[in-house]
Write a structure and sequence with these properties.
single chain; five-stranded mixed sheet; 3 helices; 5 strands
């Protein structure tokens, strides 16, 4: 059985979100970003309807908590919860698990309590997708 594809990211979204302001507030550069009315990061020919600031884990680990640990270390301890940064309407930790082998009926992962506490302290909710 092939290892699942795991993508873990922090997404900040908002109609008034200014990615440069978020980067300055967090002292972290995003993996992807876009401004409302500017080019969409997925297709430069499409106009973005919402501002997005995204930080994506880069580890190749097959353990979800390793991805979360990496992203939490990158984001550090900002003075303001992420959902309270000016222009942020939505702030979440996104966990995507893609299973290519259809015979795999069970995908299991655990998030340690320490990571859950940190996610809450950062003002994030969780979005989880297994496909």
């Amino acid at each position: 059985m092939e290892a699942p594809l795991i993508i873990v990211a922090i997404y900040l979204r908002g109609e008034r979100l200014q990615p440069e302001h978020v980067s300055q507030a967090l002292s972290v550069q995003p993996s992807k970003s876009q401004k409302t009315g500017g080019p969409c990061y997925e297709s430069k020919n499409v106009t973005a309807k919402i501002g997005i600031w995204a930080l994506i884990a880069q580890t190749d680990s097959a353990i979800v908590s390793d991805h979360i640990d990496e992203i939490l270390k990158k984001i550090g301890s900002p003075p303001t919860p992420l959902d309270k940064i000016d222009g942020v309407d939505e702030a979440y930790l996104d966990v995507f698990i893609g299973v290519e082998d259809e015979s795999a009926k069970t995908v299991e992962f655990a998030i340690p309590r320490s990571q859950l506490k940190e996610v809450v302290r950062l003002g994030l909710c969780g979005h989880f997708t297994v496909s």
